[in-house]
Amino acid sequence: MDIRRPTFALALCAFAWLVASSARAQERAPVVARSTCPDSEFTCITIRAPLDHFGRSGETIEVVFGVLPARDPAKRKGMLVTAVGGPGASGLHVADAYAATLDDAIRNAFDLVFFDQRGIGLSDGFDCVEAAATYYQTDGRGRAPAQEQALVEAARRFVDDCLRSLPPPQRLQFYTTRQAVEDLEVFRQAMGEARIWLYGESYGTQFAQWYAAAHSDRVAGLILDGAVDLALDGIRFAHDTTRAFNNVLLATLKDCNAKPDCRRDMGGDAVRAYDRLAARLDRQPATFQFPLPNGAAVTRTLGLSELETAAAGFLYTEGERMLLQRAIAAASGGDYTLLARLFYAVLGLDPITLAPLPPSGYSDAAYYVFTCNDYRYFDGSLDARARAYLRAGDAMERAIPRMQSVFYGDLPCVFWPRLNVPAKYDPAPARNIPTLILGATADPATPVEQSHAIARRLARARLITTVGGAHVTFNRGDDCPDRLVTRFLIEDQLPRRAETRCAGVIADDYVPIAPADAGRFADALAAVRSFEIELRHLPEYYYWDGETDTAVGCTRGGSATFAPAAEHDGATRFTLSGCAFSVGFILSGSGLYEPDRDRFVLDVKVSGNQAGALRYVREGESIRVTGALDGRPVNLRNE
User: Fold this and answer.
1) What is the pLDDT of residues 480-524, one digit of tens each?
2) Strand partners, 636
């Protein structure tokens, strides 16, 4: 993604802003340091805040905020603070990417502020990567006594292992959302800003609501995107989200049924295909051969818990749901490699070694620290709390047929050290803040009903509901929510209607999976087009960082490597070595993808059912294949 560099004049404005704000900060709050954020256009401002804002302890904590000044000082309205999801996500990690896609009117008028919440990233961040990776690979089902016991023991072991990597519980008790919002208040005072605009997404809506309730006179406007209803306790929230995951999965499968290629790949009704697959994996985990980049294959297994984990991770957005449709279709036909790739991507595992990948802007430990401190999961002894959690799961399992493992995600909280009493949320002071609440009917993580519940409590709230849509809908390129949010920020205009409905979809357009046998291709153009689709929809490439040379094993043997193309900014260079996604169509050679032109080129040697050399060029919807196979010339177009 291109990063917009400020012009020399804007750079001078930015410098003047930093000097002025530095003087204000020295008067109002302890600012520890200012520097350019790592690999970023943002300036990192480190503040020193009390560890306990509500006690008398002298302990402190350093929290880092990133600021990008408004491009047009003459039009500056103030600060737009973004609280990202999680809990556990680093705001500074995504700051530049978010800023680059914002409407120019917003960039001109607002200083953009992102931050790493206490315990995350640059703000004395901590994690327990190994413990989390082990825990997430355990069986997440609780329908039989043995499974329940395994769930409890896995959760207990995770907490014990994770805590060894963290500060002592006596300190961790102050890592709550209610404490963290006071860090933002210290920062606001340091910057001398009378009022701020606050945008929260997912868990960030929890943070934003707490701040607005505590400091309503300091909030000019509030935007809640994928909103969490803070009137719910942890168990009720888990129940509602489990139901939503089941419903969005069902909607994703029904969307497949409406698309002929998807329904064909599923072998018929997609709901039945998924349920048959789930039942099969529940009875006996599948054993399959997973391809490695060295051309070898390793034996792996995949069961119902892995299926539900992969599904849960790929139900958040329209593009991810399409990838899930493809993986379920392939697994229904006996090919589990794509589903396994999704599972590894969700858990952040190296597909080759299954070792945890280095953390990338998210801390599982911080997720549990904040979640387990913010909510109370039953009372009594540890065993009594665990039993109560499991019994709450019984009612859920009777009511919700799929995705039941989602409910048990917060089970470790019953074993988490309990040294504080969770604060009671009261929205009363924030009732009159102008508020936009964005939701989507296909949001699995923060069900849209929660947005409606929040709106009923706020006097000046308006709803923007996308029919279908993703978890978090603003700034994803959809004109309807983007336009309304921009108007709210720039013109101080709330929509007239209590609820605005925006058109959306459940899943992106489906792209067929490659046939197992290349003999099913009509011609060379169809074969290479299918190859490109498989290559570009590998999860390892779909979520590639665009910088790290990465090798993957191809489904039917061989390997593919992708790396940044030195000669084309933002483009990808592919290297293929005996790579096949359909038996009998094996390619070796190179390729180049230029996203700005949507142009994909392959120059390859072909072996398998036929032998020869081909050049494949696709630009947008136009495709041409030239070369020769088995001594016969090839010159094909799709026009």
Assistant:
1) 999 999 999 999 999 999 999 999 999 999 999 999 999 999 999
2) 625
Instruction: Please count the CA atoms within 13 angstroms of the CA of 205 that sit on its side-chain side.
Output: 24
**What is d(CA 43, CA 20) in angstroms, rounded to the nearest whole number?**
14
- Strands 286-291, 599-608: pairing is unpaired
Q: Please tell me the pTM assigned to this model.
A: 0.92
Q: 27 vs 637, which has greater pLDDT?
A: 637
Q: Is the pLDDT of residue 44 over 50?
A: yes
Q: What would the DSSP string read from start to end of 348-378?
A: TB-TTT-PBPPP-SB-HHHHHHHHHHHS---
Whole-angstrom distance, CA of residue 192 vs CA of residue 98: 25
**pLDDT per residue over 224-269, tens digit each?**
999 999 999 999 999 999 999 999 999 999 999 999 999 999 999 9
Cis-peptide into 515, omega within 30 deg: no
CB count in 10 Å sphere of residue 451: 27
Tell which wins on pLDDT, 45 or 419: 45
Q: Which SS3 state, helix, strand or coil, does residue 138 take? A: coil
Percentage of the residues of the chain whose pLDDT score is greater than 90: 89
The DSSP bridge pattern shows strands 110-116 and 78-83 to be: parallel
In angstroms, the CA 64 to CA 52 distance is 17
564 closest CA partner among 578, 590, 545 = 545
8 Å CB contact between 544 and 571: no
Cα–Cα distance for residue pair 350/57, rounded to 1 Å: 43
Q: Give the helix/strand (H/E) hosting 409.
A: none
Residue spans of the domains in the chain: they are 8-124+175-232+423-503, 128-164+250-375+377-417, 518-637
Largest CA distance in the chain: 85
* 354: enclosing H helix or E strand: none
Where do we find the tokens 């002929």? Answer: 260
| d(C-alpha 247, C-alpha 164), whole Å | 38
Q: 115 near 123, Cβ under 8 Å?
A: yes
The dotted CATH code for 8-124+175-232+423-503 is: 3.40.50.1820
Instruction: Give the pairing of strands 461-467 and 219-225.
Output: unpaired
Distance of CA 433 to the CA centre of its chain: 29
Measured distance CA(407)–CA(403) in Å, rounded: 8
562, 541 contact by CB (below 8 A): yes
Q: Which two tokens stand for residue 382?
A: 């540890």
Q: Where are the alpha helices (DSSP H) in 492-639?
A: 524-536, 539-542
Most confident of 351-365, 537-551, 616-630: 616-630
**Residue 542 — φ and ψ, nearest 5°?**
-55, -35
- Residues β-bridged to residue 217: none
